[in-house]
UniProtKB/TrEMBL annotation, chains A, B:
It comes from Reichenbachiella faecimaris. GO terms for biological process: D-serine biosynthetic process. PANTHER family: SERINE / THREONINE RACEMASE FAMILY MEMBER, SERINE RACEMASE. Keywords: Lyase, Pyridoxal phosphate. Belongs to the serine/threonine dehydratase family. Its cofactor is pyridoxal 5'-phosphate. It holds the Pfam family PALP. One of its GO terms (molecular function) is ATP binding. This is Threonine dehydratase. Residues 16-304 form the Tryptophan synthase beta chain-like PALP domain. It comes from the Bacteria. InterPro entries: TrpB-like_PALP, TrpB-like_PALP_sf.
Length: 314, 314
């Protein structure tokens, strides 16, 4: 797998632009005062399907010629990526097969069904997911859309940082959470091309700190059955993703579960926008390390806003 | 009391413009599809203090010369208006006295205190509030800022519809909730001046339908100890406000409590923005009467986003 070039990212942006929202960038006087610097929030919670995942999924799916889409697309995910693959497939006129663990929340099953995708349930283990996915590919000829470990996903997610820099070319820092690393690697890579003076910082729950540990040791390590309220980040960082992160990320900060909940509540209360726990990881990292951001311009990616409203942590 | 002129509204806008946020206008494909028409949301939940109330309060307070502000301002309210008077006074360098019932939620007491206002607690009755307010005026010389029954408040709240029409001059309808009628009358009045072809529609909880009954009978009637989740609308419409509403409002729709909760949840889930129950009243009226809005352009004022997150109705 090759690291995407600037040209790949630009072509991704052109390819997906009519299928995604150019999300607004918000500010909050309260947060600026708390930090002592300027903070800009790129609101991917207002993106289609409520998360940045629509960028990468659209980039893969739309990169196939119509005649190559006839067998549809398949992925295993119970989260935002599943919705993104379902919607992007629908828009492309293709069938989507989504493998989900039986115990996925009803609201996520409903969201995927609403986009017309076919759900296959499996045991809630990694092995069962992969097996179910392989079975569908064999039976249908569907093309797999990996949630993060794919240069086309990375190039697609990179368009978010690209838009950010187009509107705010003088950011000192950019912060995003890291899970599998599609957005994290994409953002760092985009900055390295279009704004190398902007430092990329990642935020990770201490409970799922495989990227932090890999970054510090220089050696890719995974994480087993992690538990965190940041349900979008419960995966180990991908190999290609980590290669890019190792090269282009400035620092990784870890945050605790209560800090994530507090940050989420703060944004809800003060900015009146709904962010999901995974996004709050980045906000918590900002607040926990605010000394670094005093007097600076910091761009923070609000990655998504999909939250189960009847199971809030407050 | 005189009905504000267009010139009054324009001067209000000039006067307050640097103290308020020119709030963004959002759209939602989901809502457009549900309605079968185009709906535009003016997001006053992103306004200072999280509600449109900042407009009217600023207009009154900033209309006094600095030397006339020395004794401060007083109001009785436990809601968004209290926060608006507190913040506008602070910005004006004046003292704010807020009369609140003892049983007001802690979060509202804290918000007002944060703006440096002095709180006087009283029994949770209308008489006690008025008496406490009068006492403060006598003792301090503070100027009262009524939450809705004042032409300067109406002119201030009218600036929201004015901004709306400046950006979307071809709205067929505008919808706002109605409580005391500051925003409702202000919006209807602004439309009558700057966009007389836009029909003003009000939304009211069935549980607090004094404006509806007044509108239908042509005679101002009040409401006693109303109960509704729409805590910003638990007051009877003002006399001057009703005069304007009677003249310039096209229709008033009533909605039930469950419809308010459902509409609130819908906006949270689909638009990822936090709206308070009073705003959801307008959304519920839109959805309940959607036939009227098919193929039309409708502007809806999201009045505020102040919600107690640990006491949600879902």
């Amino acid at each position: 797998m090759e690291i995407p070039s600037l040209s790949d990212i630009k072509r991704a942006h052109t390819r997906i632009t009519k299928y995604i929202v150019r999300t607004p960038i918000m500010t909050s006087q309260t947060i600026n005062e708390m930090v002592g610097g300027e903070v800009f929030f790129k609101c991917e919670n207002f993106q289609k399907v409520g998360a940045f995942k629509m960028r990468g999924a659209s980039n893969i799916i739309m990169s196939y010629r119509p005649e190559d889409r006839v067998n549809g697309f398949v992925t295993h995910s119970s989260g935002n990526h599943a919705q993104a693959v379902a919607l992007a497939s629908k828009v492309a006129g293709a069938k989507a097969y989504i493998v989900m663990p039986e115990n996925a929340p009803q609201v996520k099953k409903d969201a995927v069904k609403e986009y017309g995708a076919e759900i296959t349930f499996c045991e809630p283990t990694e092995e069962a997911r992969v097996a179910a996915c392989a079975k569908i590919m064999n039976e249908t000829g569907a093309i797999q859309v990996h949630p993060f470990h794919d240069p086309r996903i990375i190039a697609g997610q990179a368009t978010c940082a690209k838009e950010f820099i187009e509107e705010y070319p003088d950011l000192d820092f950019m912060i995003s959470p890291v899970g599998g690393g599609g957005l994290a690697a994409g953002s760092a890579l985009a900055l390295s091309y279009v704004s190398p003076t902007t430092k990329m910082i990642l935020a990770e729950p201490s409970n799922v700190d495989d990227t932090y540990r890999s970054f510090k040791s220089g050696k890719l390590v995974g994480v087993d059955s992690p538990e965190s309220i940041a349900d979008g980040l419960l995966v180990s960082v991908g190999k290609l993703n980590f290669e890019i992160i190792k090269e282009h990320v400035s620092e990784i900060y870890r945050v605790e579960e209560q800090e994530i909940v507090d940050a989420m509540r703060l944004i809800w209360e003060r900015m009146k926008v709904i962010i999901e726990p995974s996004s709050a990881v980045a906000v918590a990292a900002l607040l926990k390390n605010k000394k670094q951001f005093v007097g600076k311009k910091t761009g923070l990616i609000i990655t998504g806003g999909n939250v189960q409203l009847d199971a809030l942590p407050f």
